[in-house]
């Protein structure tokens, strides 16, 4: 099995555990375990930690905005996103240079995958947790638009940050 496929499988297992438990106790422990496993199996450059931190920080901010705009709610009320939801960001960030690395050179495909895959993940999460869409039609469409823009931007960031020192190799051709 290729390392990219294994990286994707480990991400999906962690994602599923977070959604099934939606526990604010389990979530941080799972992030620690996931990142430790990522370090052992996949980490190639220390700069990847910076990428994970930046994606996590940006994702947490985005979650705040999504909940503030009532695109997503918890128990049908506007408020803060749950901790376990924020714990998805560092776990997702570990995929950008592995299972999703090829998308760094195919930004249109990254946009399409972001729109479809991102929205699909949110739809699944809404079905499994107390998080819900603010509106049944406009909220998933907003998520699709956000992820259609966000996924290629994250791929560009990953490609630029992880490019070898002194290289002109970036995610944009």
TrEMBL record:
Name the domain of life.
Bacteria
- Please give the start and end residues of each transmembrane region: 15-37, 49-71, 83-100, 107-125, 137-158
Q: What protein name is recorded for this chain? A: DUF2878 domain-containing protein
Keyword Transmembrane in record: yes
List the source organism.
Candidatus Litorirhabdus singularis
Q: Which UniProt keywords apply?
A: Membrane, Transmembrane, Transmembrane helix
Top-level taxonomy: Bacteria, Pseudomonadati, Pseudomonadota, Gammaproteobacteria, Cellvibrionales
What is one Pfam family matched by this protein? DUF2878
* InterPro entries linked: DUF2878
């Amino acid at each position: 099995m290729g390392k990219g496929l294994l990286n994707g499988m480990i991400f999906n297992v962690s994602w599923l555990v977070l959604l099934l438990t939606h526990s604010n106790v389990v979530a941080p422990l799972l992030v620690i375990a996931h990142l430790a496993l990522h370090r052992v199996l996949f980490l190639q450059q220390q700069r990847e930690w910076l990428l994970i931190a930046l994606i996590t920080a940006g994702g947490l901010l985005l979650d705040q905005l999504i909940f503030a705009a009532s695109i997503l709610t918890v128990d049908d009320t506007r408020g803060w996103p749950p901790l376990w939801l924020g714990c998805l960001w560092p776990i997702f960030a570990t995929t950008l240079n592995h299972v999703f690395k090829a998308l760094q050179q195919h930004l249109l495909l990254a946009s399409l995958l972001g729109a479809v895959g991102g929205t699909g993940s949110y739809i699944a999460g809404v079905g499994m947790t107390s998080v819900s869409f603010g509106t049944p039609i406009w909220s998933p469409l907003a998520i699709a638009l956000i992820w259609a823009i966000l996924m290629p931007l994250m791929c560009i960031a990953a490609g630029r940050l992880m490019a070898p020192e002194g290289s002109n190799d970036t995610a944009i051709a």
